[in-house]
Design goal:
The structure holds two protein chains of two kinds.
Chain A: H1 8-22, H2 28-55, E1 61-70, E2 73-81, H3 83-106, H4 113-132, H5 136-154, H6 161-192, H7 207-215, H8 224-239, H9 248-251, H10 257-266, H11 270-278, H12 280-283, H13 296-315, H14 321-341, H15 345-372, H16 390-404, H17 411-424, H18 431-455, H19 462-465, H20 472-487, H21 498-503, H22 514-536, H23 548-552, H24 554-561, H25 566-618, H26 621-640, H27 645-667
Antiparallel strand pairs in A: 1-2
Chain B: H1 6-23, H2 29-53, E1 62-70, E2 75-81, H3 83-102, H4 110-129, H5 133-142, H6 144-154, H7 159-188, H8 193-201, H9 204-211, H10 216-231, H11 241-247, H12 250-275, H13 277-304, H14 308-333, H15 341-376, E3 385-386, H16 388-391, H17 393-406, H18 413-428, H19 430-455, E4 460-461, H20 472-490, H21 493-508
Antiparallel strand pairs in B: 1-2, 3-4
The chains are: A mainly alpha, B mainly alpha.
Chain lengths: 669, 513
């Protein structure tokens, strides 16, 4: 397949978005049909693209084209086909397709469903454009459009003030990171003269450019590639909900649940991970400099480790089913960053792919629960759904076990194992590895708690007791995703690392790791055991019964439930700083600058007054007469200023005629 | 086409319309409106003719009309059009009819209002096309007269004070500029922009001015700078802007921000930079900071406004400061050790694009605020509305595109210009680009707050009751503007093709005499 055809992958959903935008308010079927058909088409093209890359996984097939002329040069964009692009595109289109289908059921009664499918398609187009871009500029454009789609979808129920606020928070928080990305992009452009990734030897990810970037030293003794890499990473921190910009992701759950599944779990938040994997040659370039004060990837590893642990800790004390999953997403994205940071980008992408399946599964399962329980999301008020919602329960449990890393059968086990293995082998520090291990226990614990609270015991509210299984249009996607959550892991086992070798033909599976595997199995068992002991053995009796963990450590759990106060901290610092600057800028304008202007005007008046006094009292009568004459003239003029606009207009017209006459008569040489 | 004075037609057709309106005392409101609109649209039609016959590869002025006028003073009637002028003429052709349509519902004195709009339009075109200081300055000053009356007669409660402040402040600035040009004329004996630029390029201007001795050369430069700085405005000479934009009637606000604010930047590019390259280079480090202050403080001050029109006015200050930032970065790097033609070309292309894009988005936003005002009996506080998107989805969608265009979302027109400005400024003064990012962030916060408070949430305030969606004359100005935002975001070469060779030539001559 020619890489020029790759543009079909984003263009088909874009077309569907156009159809959705123009569809009438009641055109739900049209918009949904277009969205699903386009996504299916994009999936077909993506599979075809994948088959093409499998022939020679080490090749980067590109198609570059001119966007517009700039100065003596041209701004160029392009498409890129390699296994990373193809695998990601297949995943996004497949998971997206299932979520689109699920949405037809979930959004059945929403009057604005046509717009919903329009926004979903726009999102898919932007995300897929980001994947197939062979230019950091094109990637950035799509990256921001993904942000726009996310904004529109989080705020889809915009009449709810919380949804509107959450949408704004997501956009602004990610934009903070994006400014770093923008600066990194500008720096890269300025120092290499190109933003194409691969361009027959002249691209920014190719040896020549990388050599220059590593060889140049900039502020703080950093290699230029390190500085640019860290700036690009800022964008990934924002988009992928990494500490310290993770605060928007849990709030983003205000959007309809399929949105949470599609963009705040499976695909969009993975864009940051994808970005770092895409520019990995640039991020890793400084590793060649042993004496460098800082390696870009070390920062990535540290941020990833902190996020993995932080997300898992906070998830323990959340009671909203979607927020538990949101923080688990934060934590799992931290794992992926950790993998990137320790140098194993293939492990990161492996986990990204498995996570996309089981997290989409979990979110859609949560959506099925919320749909059935009349929008009850508090797990303390759910319970007893195992009986009436058999398919949802079984598939949700599969997703939970995949996320928790239950051994051998579930995909999450294998991908997480690959990450832990890589972290263990990292020569710089073992701290990220230990953070990863701790997060394993916590993940198993909070997921067990979630399943026990939501599905076991007896219903603890009116809504939960009326729950019933969702229609097949919602459960069939669950079953298909569950299949992926199990099967995908076998593509990347240490015995047959097909996925790793496809992504990186130079991948070598290292021997050993059995001891590590045993350790993590023990930790998973520990986490599930503790969760079962606290929440599963004796399910809570009613919605207001105290949480067993909270009863034991109220202070800690309270702080965790309040998300460790990050939002308050930011409101008190960044928020106030920005508000303060705004006040200062306004006061400066209203009082200081405008005051100066008024003062000048007063001085002018005063000077006039003094002048008049001098004229009248000091200077001779002749001057007096002259100034009197002047004043008379002024009076005559002021009489002309009657305020009668017609009069003015007549003069203007007269002036115009005179001007024309002057031109005509003076124009003859 | 040969022999037809295309540029004179461009300039004087709106004035002819104004004269016609002045003469037709008995014309009905409908006729008056129709005449005004037709003559206003003439600019767009003639601009298309000019664009069709325009040869972008030639960087000098085209369609030149040059006739001796006041031979004793060596003054010529001299009009010409290059890529820069063409972009601004096209913009005027778009914004002026839109502004007129936006004021369609003015009942009181609609004939006079139409005539004043046409006068304003012709003056602005004169500024963009005149190549001799003498009548350039006449157009420059004449534009104030109709603007003054539009603000004063049809403006809000504080209109009189705002109008006076606007005119006195601007004339104050212009007086210094006039003085500067008088000195230039005394030194060089010409007022022709092209000749002055040539004399400047070979160092004659600097030499002759230096001959006057003392601080005169600096005073001449500062005089011209001040006249232009007030007009754009450059921070801190901007305090006339928020009240003037806020108190003006919607259509006048659209024209002021869409077209008149471009006159200042145009002056910087056409006059100050070519004629005073040396002094501008010396002053650029300070001016860079002022432009940065406009970018950052303008955006933050906007955050604090509760009046939506003042908010959009401040965001205009922010957006135009990007243009000046780019120009000053180029001026600062001029003659520097590092050949930076590529970055300079990006910065200058970005400036020209930003001029056009800001014209579209700011005019559209003022129009949207005007619609809100019309629906709510004159209220335009940010807290006076809520949930408008539920009541008027089409309005919300179009206004949303304008907002996102203004905040520089990729895929819409605003991004291309801002990206090129940042690309250029980063190459010339990286720290300035980094500081300016704060402005980008504040702008996003500002515009999303606007959108959230007015359009989202439950229906409240003036939108709680009946709030119909856009109708004919409200839709008509908005649709073409929004359509262009979408088109130019994807196909910027539709515009850049006109000026890319010109900008390349500018960027190739970054040498000091």
């Amino acid at each position: 397949m020619s890489p020029a055809l790759l543009c079909l992958i984003p263009l088909l959903p874009l077309l569907a978005a156009g159809v959705g935008a123009l569809a009438p308010r009641g055109g739900r079927t049209l918009a949904a049909g277009a969205a699903i058909a386009a996504m299916a088409g994009a999936f077909g093209v993506a599979v075809f693209a994948l088959l093409t890359t499998l022939r020679d996984p080490s090749a980067h097939l590109t198609y570059n084209f001119d966007w517009f002329d700039l100065g003596a040069g041209t701004v160029r964009l392009g498409w890129l086909l390699d296994p990373l692009t193809a695998l990601m595109a297949v995943m996004v289109t497949f998971v997206g397709l299932l979520i689109f289908v699920f949405s037809t059921g979930y959004m059945k009664d929403d009057p604005n469903a046509a717009k919903f499918f329009c926004f979903l398609s726009l999102f898919a187009a932007a995300m897929l454009g980001l994947l197939v871009a062979n230019s950091l500029l094109l990637l950035f454009i799509c990256w921001e459009l993904v942000g726009l789609a996310s904004y529109l979808l989080i705020g889809f129920w915009f009449h709810k003030p919380e949804a509107a606020a959450a949408a704004k928070k997501a956009f602004i928080t990610t934009r903070i990171g994006d400014l770093g990305l923008l600066l990194g992009l500008l720096w890269l452009y300025d120092s290499t003269g190109s933003l194409l990734f691969y361009d027959g030897g002249k691209g920014v990810l190719e040896a020549e450019a990388l050599g220059t970037l590593v060889a140049t030293t900039t502020a703080g003794g950093l290699a230029l590639s390190t500085a640019i890499g860290l700036l690009l990473f800022c964008g990934a921190v924002g988009k992928s909900g990494q500490f310290p910009l993770h605060v928007w992701l849990p709030d983003a759950m205000e959007g309809p649940t399929p949105v949470s599944a599609l963009i705040h779990a499976a695909t969009m938040v993975a864009a940051g991970v994808f970005l770092i994997a895409r520019v990995f040659p640039l991020m890793a370039a400084d590793l060649a400099l042993a004496a460098a004060p800082l390696h870009a990837l070390s920062v990535v590893a540290a941020i990833g480790a902190i996020t993995a642990l932080l997300g898992a800790v906070i998830a323990v004390a959340q009671s909203d089913i979607k927020r538990v999953l949101a923080f688990s997403t934060v934590s799992q994205l931290g794992y992926m960053m950790l993998a990137l940071g320790v140098g194993s980008w293939v492990a990161a992408i492996f986990h990204l792919l498995t996570h996309a399946f089981f997290k989409a599964l979990l979110f859609l399962g949560a959506g099925s629960v919320i749909h059935a329980a009349h929008h009850e999301q508090d797990i303390r008020r759910l319970g007893g759904l195992r009986g009436p919602m058999r398919t949802t329960f079984v598939t949700f449990a599969i997703g939970m076990m995949a996320l928790a890393g239950v051994p051998f059968l579930f995909s999450g086990f294998w991908s997480k194992e690959a990450i832990l293995h890589a972290a263990h082998g990292w020569g710089v520090s073992h701290l990220p590895f230990y953070a990863g291990l701790a997060a394993v226990v916590l993940t198993a614990f909070y997921m067990t708690r979630l399943v026990a609270e939501a599905f076991l015991g007896a219903p603890r509210s009116e809504e939960a007791s009326h729950a019933h299984e969702s229609p097949p249009v919602m459960t069939v996607p669950l079953l298909l995703l569950a299949g992926g959550a199990v099967g995908l892991g076998f593509l990347g086992t240490p015995w047959w690392p097909w996925l790793q070798r496809t992504l990186d033909p130079g991948f070598k599976s290292e021997p050993g790791g059995a001891g590590l595997m045993v350790t993590s199995i023990v930790l998973v068992a520990l986490g599930i055991g503790a969760g079962w002991a606290l929440y599963g053995r004796r399910p809570r009796a009613n919605a207001t019964a105290p949480d067993p963990l909270q009863a034991r450590a109220p202070g800690i759990v309270g702080a965790l439930a309040a998300r460790l106060g990050f939002d308050e901290l930011y409101a008190a610092t960044v928020g106030r700083l920005s508000a303060g600057t705004a006040v200062a800028a306004d006061v400066l304008d209203r009082y200081v600058l405008d005051g100066l202007v008024r003062l000048l005007a007063r001085l002018g008046q005063f000077a006039g007054l003094v002048n008049r006094e001098i004229d009248e009292d000091v200077l001779n009568a002749g001057f007096d007469a002259a100034s009197g004459q002047l004043r008379d003239t002024g009076r005559t003029y002021s009489r002309a200023q009657t305020g009668d606009a017609h009069g003015y207009l007549r003069f203007v017209a007269l002036g115009f005629v005179l001007l024309v006459l002057a031109v005509v008569m003076g124009g003859t040489p | 086409m040969k022999g037809l004075p295309l540029l004179s037609l461009l300039v004087f057709a709106p004035w002819a319309g104004a004269a016609l309106l002045a003469l037709l005392r008995r014309a009905s409101v409908r006729t008056a409106r129709a005449i005004a609109l037709v003559f206003s649209l003439s600019t767009l039609a003639l601009a298309f003719v000019a664009a069709a016959g325009f040869d972008p590869a030639r960087t000098g002025p085209q369609f030149v009309e040059r006739h001796a006028w006041i031979t004793a003073l060596n003054v010529h009637y001299h009009l010409g059009l290059d890529g820069l002028s063409l972009v601004l003429v096209l913009l005027t052709g778009l914004v002026a009819p839109a502004a007129l349509l936006s004021s369609w519902r003015i009942e009181r004195g609609s004939r006079l209002a139409g005539a004043l709009f046409l006068l304003l339009q012709g003056s602005a075109l004169g500024v963009f096309l005149a190549l001799d200081f003498f009548h350039w300055f006449v157009f420059w000053e004449l534009s104030l007269v109709p603007a003054f009356f539009l603000i004063k007669l049809w403006g809000g409660p504080g209109a009189t004070r705002a109008a006076y402040q606007f005119v006195v402040y601007t004339i104050g600035g212009s007086a210094f500029m006039l003085f500067g040009f008088a000195a230039l004329y005394a030194a060089t004996g010409t007022l022709d922009f092209g000749q002055l630029a040539q004399l400047a390029a070979d160092g004659t201007v600097a030499r002759k001015l230096a001959a006057t001795g003392g601080a005169w050369p600096q005073a001449v430069f500062l005089g011209v700078l001040l006249g232009l700085a007030v007009k754009v405005p450059l921070w801190p000479f901007h305090t006339w802007l928020p009240p003037a934009y806020a108190e003006a009637p919607t259509g006048a606000s659209m024209f002021l921000t869409g077209v008149m604010s471009k006159m200042g930047v145009y002056g910087f590019l056409r006059i100050l930079w070519p004629i005073f390259p040396g002094p501008l280079h010396q002053a650029a480090p300070v001016l860079l900071w002022l432009a940065l202050a406009g970018v950052v403080l303008g955006a933050f001050a906007a955050l604090r406004q509760t009046d939506l029109k003042r908010m959009v006015a401040y965001s205009s200050l922010n957006h135009l400061s990007y243009c000046l930032l780019a120009l000053f970065a180029v001026a600062a790097a001029t003659g520097g050790p590092r050949p930076a033609a590529e970055a300079a070309a990006a910065a200058l292309s970005g400036t020209l694009l930003q001029l056009f894009n800001h014209g579209l988005s700011a005019a559209a936003l003022f129009h949207c605020v005007g619609v809100l005002e019309a629906r709510s009996g004159g209220r335009r506080g940010i807290g006076d509305f809520g949930g408008v998107r539920s009541a008027a989805p089409v309005f919300a969608a179009l206004c949303g595109v304008a907002l996102f265009s203004s905040l520089g979302l990729p895929g819409l027109n605003g991004f291309v210009g801002e990206f090129l400005i940042f690309r250029g400024v980063f190459g010339l003064a990286p720290w300035a680009a980094a500081v300016a990012c704060l402005g980008l962030l504040a702008t996003a916060l500002l515009l999303l707050t606007f959108w959230q408070k007015v359009f989202h949430g439950p229906r409240a305030g003036a939108a709680a009751g009946e709030f119909p969606d856009l109708r004919g004359t409200e839709l008509a100005p908005l649709v073409p503007l929004v359509a262009l935002m979408l088109v130019l975001g994807v196909l910027p070469h539709l515009l850049t093709q006109f000026f890319n060779p010109l900008v390349t030539a500018w960027a190739g001559h970054l040498l000091l005499p």
